[in-house]
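Fold it.
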Amino acid sequence: MRFMIIVKATTDSEERVMPSEELYSAMQKYHEELAKAGVLLDRAGLQPSSSGIRISYPVPGGKPKVIDGPFTEAKELIAGYTLIEVKSKEEAIEWAYRYPDPHGFGQGEIELRPLYEAGDLTINSELLAKDAKLDKQVEEQKKT
């Protein structure tokens, strides 16, 4: 089971306030523990929404609308993520519980969300085979 640990943004992260060395070190140690346990798939911080672009689809079948950041409501934005693969929801919760306060000073908030697998979204064997082929292609590209 794959889960994403989502780090919620704060006004500080939206203002590009960088983490202290202590916090960065704690995050690094946490990710090293995940890697050592063999459950870490990916992790990254995201630049503030002022660097972002939103694309919306206001009219079905119509032209997408592009909106440049920044976006309002920092508490609804994402500042970073950690992607893990574990055996159960309980294990994901255990790992998420150990996540350091991502912003320090009691401002941090994380969200734990399971990812859909292809089989959760369709039972069409042709589409599932195409997904498997694409997954294999991505894995091969990572090796080069």
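The two ends are 26 Å apart (CA to CA).
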